[in-house]
Amino acid sequence: MELRRATTANDLDQATAISNVLSEAGIAATLRGGLHDAYPGTSGLGAIDVLVSEEDLIVAQDVLGRADTVGLEFDPEAEER
Description:
Elements: E1 3-9, H1 12-24, E2 30-32, E3 48-53, H2 57-67
Antiparallel strand pairs: 1-3, 2-3
């Protein structure tokens, strides 16, 4: 399964909130990047990519677009680097 970047969060707290929004919509998300990979459980240590399956990417961006109206910021045009 190919993973694609749905968005990039500023820190672990924001990435977790975004992942939870996607999970509630039935979309599995994986977090990658920041120092979170090296030091699990840490917060505020760099940007973290929120990855979803290629099949879920469009729906995930739509879900996040709706969530953006309640305070979650993301780039709806994000693609895997």
